[in-house]
Structures
1.
Amino acid sequence: MPPPGSTARLGGVPGRIQEVLERKKQVILYGPPGTGKTFWAEEAAHQLAAHHNFSAPYDRLAPEQKRLLDGDDGSKGLIRMCTFHPAYGYEDFLEGYRPEVLDDQLVFSLHDGIFKVLCDEASEKPEQDFYLVIDEINRGDVPRVFGELLTVLEKDKRGRPVTLPLTGEPLKVPGNVYVIGTMNTADRSIALLDTALRRRFGFVELMPDSSVLGETVVGGIPLGPWLDAVNRAIVDHVGQDARNLQIGHSYLLEAGRSVADLATFIEVIRDDIIPLLEEYCYEDFSALEKILGDGLVDVGNERIRHELLDVSKQGEFVQALLTPYPELSASPQVIASEIEAPIEDEEANGGDTSEAVH
């Protein structure tokens, strides 16, 4: 077993994140909604911190070891998380004045932001690695939030002080601080990011991956091939930047597994996927029809036939959803499920009934 401080090589998406962090110290995961960006950001941070500090995967750590990474009872762990939004600012990230009541008087006091606190603690514990996960990094005004931090964020400038304007104190970003951001390209293309930010971060693209849905067939609909067909239709008919407006596989996952029953699948289509597609095809019902089919989309009246999204009309719903993609009915997944179904029925009836006739 390697000693603490030596990190194992991770595989898959965490491995790609690890490679970028070793080279750049910060990475942004970007892609359409539902592609697992936040999941993989947190997973990579936990696995890297676990291996570095305890030479073991995160799921094998003892409770007290996990608390060191995640924090507990008000204490801050080695892994921290924040979410950028339009109101998130420099004062939240680095330092700024915040209102508070002191002796029944409203006063403004200077407070350190999440990243400054993290850097200070990392400087005091150089043997440990610290991770900050910034969810939805593109939803904030990044140049304003980062301020002069952009100067010293680069790997070759780590440890070099920059003077903060409010306190006049020097800020150093230690080499044991790593930043993992996530970015939904349906909100904003990567091409629109601040150039200075792009140069300091490495980027890992996460696109829809139908393979995680396996061979699941729900009501005669093979989930993986159906998702691929819908995403191809989005790219063909939605228009500019449609590649970034696809549907991620996690919409069809429940507790890490493929949606397994038709009633749940109908709910996902009704509550998640149709509203998303309506946003993508805003007021263009002809494009929406090309994706969902004329069984679900009434172009003439510019409406979704929500009456088919009732659990009592499962057969009509399946037929409507398959209409634009008839080839899915002959997919290997559907054929395999149809072969297995009679076997399951036979076992439920106590075996081969043909022998009882003779």
2.
Amino acid sequence: MSAAFLLGSFAFAQKYSTKTGKVSFFSDAKLEDISAENNQVTAVLDASSGEMAFIVLIKSFEFEKAMMQQHFNENYLHSDKYPKSTFSGKIANISAVNFTKDGSYDVTAEGKLTLHGVTKNVKEKGRIVVSGNKITAQSKFMILLKDYNIRNDKLQNISDQIEVTVHTEMLKQ
């Protein structure tokens, strides 16, 4: 199921969403650490089924140095050819989350992550925090560049393994 279809299929569900979610990444490399942040992430969650989707525009990542951003878009992620990354899946243990009671709930998300034109099945742990009509979805996980056909240069300017952090605050629709 594509993320675009999933985003459109939530019309009559118990839906939470945002267009200002945050995804960041960190690379611990030989020459220097590299990190970037994207605060324009679209995310939706159907609380009744656990279905969820994220869309991340690659060019919206912001770096400390302009040269890093240019290299990221041109040499690694090829953002003109692959302008977005998506996740489409569901919270496997959605019954563990009580959306009517404020609290923090450990969850496992399963689905398809598409990055750099490659789609992989993923399963990652996360946390849902319920607070009134707002939920916060958080996760931290690692991806391997080779899994998504992202070439690493011979100088190893970036790590072969990247830490990704997701933090979205979604409001009830």
